[in-house]
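[User] Once you have settled down, look closely at the record that follows, and write a paragraph about the fold.
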Amino acid sequence: MKQIANISQEDQALPVDPMVSMIERVAMDPNSDLAKLERMLELKERHDAQNAKAAYASAFAQASAEFPTIPLNGKGHNGKPYATLEDITKLTRPVLSQYGLALTFAVDVGEQVVVTAKLMHKAGHSESTSMALPRDTSGSKNAVQAVGSTQKYGQRYTAQAILGLSLGMDDEDDGRAAAGRGEPISVRQYDELRQLIDQAGITEEIVCTAEKLGALHDLPARHFERVSGRLQQTVKNRGAQQ
């Protein structure tokens, strides 16, 4: 009985939101103004959203300060190391969970594969970032494998972005390269290069190695004509030899 009494006293000691109490009084009053009640509910919703956003910001600030160093265990087409999705999620998930945060992904497959990373907090606030990518058809992948490969690539980069991860030389080199490359090729240009690669009887990896790319869709648009011309010449030479 003493234990039950203690629990009851603790429940009574819990703070009551004065705004909730006010809304309850207005709602219970048969003469209350419905429009006034709706405005109060809207105000409460905005108030809760602001509190949830503040709680998210506080939790993320604490979590990001405790993220461990992510090893660069992956290896790209050109031998360049990178942090794998498995390592990113495995090493950050315990820290995120400790502060009431969770990272999820959504994928929308159409002409492009759009990958969205969503970081949620238990208070209700969330942030998201998306990346649209052409399908990775390198290495004679079938349609399902192409989507799966692109999805994993997109998850890795959106996770890095939304978690604000600094991955040493991997990030530094990517930043320098991106700064000097300009806009990447379009989906149409990517498809055109893929057709030429197939006709030339080579692989996407060969082109990526020659151009020092992690993936073909990273090719700068200003280099499209040069690479396309070389592939067309390779196709022509191959035809002359047959």
